[in-house]
Amino acid sequence: MNLAKKKELAARTLKVGKERIVFLQSRLNEIKEALTKQDIRDLVKEGAISVKEVCGRRKHKKKKRRKSPGNIRKKVNKRKQEYVKLVRKLRGYVSELRKQGVLSREEVLDIRKKIRNKIFRSKAHLKRYIEEMKK
User: Fold this and answer.
1) Dist. CA 97–CA 65, nearest whole Å
2) Beta carbons of 61 and 47 less than 8 angstroms apart
3) Residues of the chain with CATH 1.10.1200.60
4) Residues of the chain with pLDDT > 70: what percent?
5) What digits encode the pLDDT tens for the residues 49-80?
6) Is the CB of residue 9 less than 8 Å from the CB of residue 40?
7) Are the C-beta atoms of residues 30 and 48 closer than 8 Å to each other?
8) CATH 3.40.50.10840 matches 4-55
9) CB of 94 closer than 8 Å to CB of 108
10) Fewest Cβ atoms nearer than 10 Å: which of 29, 69, 116, 119?
11) Can you give the pTM of this predicted structure?
C-alpha cells in the first residue's frame, strides 16, 4: 500500500518534513481513507499518525553571541584615515616650529619618530610634550 501522498498531506498539514511523519501500522486503512487536512488532524489526535522528534544538532538552540562594546573595532580603512590625518597635522606643526627656530633638527627627528609610533593623541598633546621638553 503506497501512502506517499498521504504522508505529503500530513507533512503539509503539520508543517514538518515527510521524514518525520510516522503512520501506525494497525490503522493504515483509516489513514488511506483520509482525504482532507481535517481528517489528518483527527488521526493525529487519535494517535494513528505521529511526528518524530528532530534529530541531530538542529534541536539544540544555538547560544546567541553578541559583541560587547570592548570588542568592536573600527574598520581598517577608517583607522588608517584617522592616522593619516593626525600624522599630517602633527608633522606640519613640527615643520612650522622648525622653520621658526623653536626646535632643532635632532629634536624634530626624535618627535617625528614618536609621531610615527602614535605616541601623541592630538596636537594639544604634542604641544604639551614640546613645552615639557623645553623646560
Assistant:
1) 51
2) no
3) 73-134
4) 96
5) 999 988 776 656 777 777 777 777 888 899 99
6) yes
7) yes
8) no
9) yes
10) 69
11) 0.48
Rounded distance between C-alpha atoms, residue 15 and residue 39, angstroms: 15
Q: Return the beta strands (E) in 17-59 as ranges.
A: 21-23, 49-51
Domain with CATH 1.10.1650.10 in the chain: 4-55
Which residue is it, cell 489513514? 31
Cell triple for residue 28?
Answer: 493504515
Which listed CATH number (2.40.160.20, 3.10.290.10, 3.40.30.10, 1.10.1200.60) goes with 73-134? 1.10.1200.60
Q: pLDDT, tens digit, for every residue of 79-135? A: 999 999 999 999 999 999 999 999 999 999 999 999 999 999 999 999 999 999 988
Residue 86's region, left for phi above 0, alpha for psi from -120 to 50, else beta, is: alpha
String of DSSP letters for 71-123 = G----HHHHHHHHHHHHHHHHHHHHHHHHHTSS-HHHHHHHHHHHHTT--SSH
